[in-house]
Amino acid sequence: MAKWVGRCPDCGEWGTVDEVAGVPAGPKGSGAVAPTSPARRITEVDADSSASIATGIGELDRVLGRGVVPGSVVLLAGEPGVGKSTLLLEAVKYWAKGGRTALYITGEESAGQVRMRAERTDAVHENVYLASESDLGTILGHVDAVSPSLLVVDSVQTVVASAVDGVTGGVTQIRAVTTALVSLAKNRGIAVILVGHVTKDGAVAGPRSLEHLVDVVLSFEGDRHSSLRMVRGIKNRFGPADEVGCFEQRDDGIHQVPDPSGIFLHQRGIDVTGSTALVTMDGKRALVGEIQSLANPSTMATPRRAVSGLDSARVAMVLAVLQSRLSAKVGDKEIYVATVGGMRVTEPAGDLAIALAVSSVLNDTPIPQFTVAIGEVGLAGEVRRVSAVARRVAEAKRLGFMHAIVPAATDEKLPTGIKVTRVGDLHQAVRAGLVSVVAAPF
């Protein structure tokens, strides 16, 4: 007997089960159908027909793979207020400046509200058309009337297909709306950008098939306490899927940051204890940042450990290695370790910088400001090899660093013009990093 189901019996989530009409069983076999166009040799297909068109925003084009491909569908997902709509208004402005027509559909705001934001960020252009609609059929009618080469739908969760049952933003509605817009893009050669919501876990809201339907999935990330914003590629059929574009949110809009390392190093100018520079890889992009550490005596049985911008488990592991292998006296001290400028470091290559920053503050001896540390620390105190060391050292050299401490097992050809010290364990790293070596390490 049929009954209402509110919770999926497989995944345990609520509100993900939709009622659909049964499909009548057809014949087991299907006959051949004459194709509308014959298959061609791959050498006869014109590759220029799918050439990318630059949006005019270099950091966005970097993630997309040189630009937007006509007939493609891009999904841009991010938390509320991170700046998705502001970025896309900039994109349609530059698109219109190139002599092309753009149609911006908003389902969450009125056209007047979008116009006010566009004026504040200087994103007004006569070739940009605005419409406040949430009905899929009406949106398709606007496309017929305007004939744009770029369509932006903000957001896909607010659009409703009247011919399909289901609540707005539900699984069935999102799948139907996305399928229709993908078909529109492929049949007419229109580039479509969809804005998507995210769940509290940071995943794209809606069915998982949504990410399979589109050609490109981008994640727009940012901390509410920092002005830095990052567009990260998750899926890209036309380019690398691990590129990152950097932006800065300001009062007058969102601006590109071609050199984000400057944000993380903007106040680094003197030698100070507990401070070490590092190079982390975000996708294919090398970012130079700074790790700071502070140690205070504590009378508590369990001294406090505070971590910001880093993986607390890795920091705890590095402290344990310092205490066990180098006899560092960290058990009776409060230890604070943090990144600067809102940078987040989760990869193991930041272990050596953490170890040197803590060692520096315990020895009351600064690490030179033009020294950068790269490497993973093992439980035996060894400094292990990490990926892309040559690219990291090259980025440090470009920013004026003169000394790089890297794992001894590195087999890459490193750039010249910068002093490179190869270390095999923490003892060697501490001796190479500290300005003056004290008799007793700790």
TrEMBL record:
ATP binds at residues 78-85. Pfam families: AAA_25, ChlI, Zn_ribbon_LapB. Residues 334-442 are annotated as: Lon-protease-like. Keywords: ATP-binding, DNA damage, DNA repair, DNA-binding, Hydrolase, Metal-binding, Nucleotide-binding, Stress response, Zinc, Zinc-finger. GO terms for molecular function: ATP binding; ATP-dependent DNA damage sensor activity; damaged DNA binding; hydrolase activity; zinc ion binding. GO terms for cellular component: cytosol. Residues 49-198 form the RecA family profile domain. A motif (RadA KNRFG motif) lies at residues 235-239. It comes from the Bacteria. DNA-dependent ATPase involved in processing of recombination intermediates, plays a role in repairing DNA breaks. Stimulates the branch migration of RecA-mediated strand transfer reactions, allowing the 3' invading strand to extend heteroduplex DNA faster. Binds ssDNA in the presence of ADP but not other nucleotides, has ATPase activity that is stimulated by ssDNA and various branched DNA structures, but inhibited by SSB. Does not have RecA's homology-searching function. Belongs to the RecA family. RadA subfamily. The middle region has homology to RecA with ATPase motifs including the RadA KNRFG motif, while the C-terminus is homologous to Lon protease. This is DNA repair protein RadA.
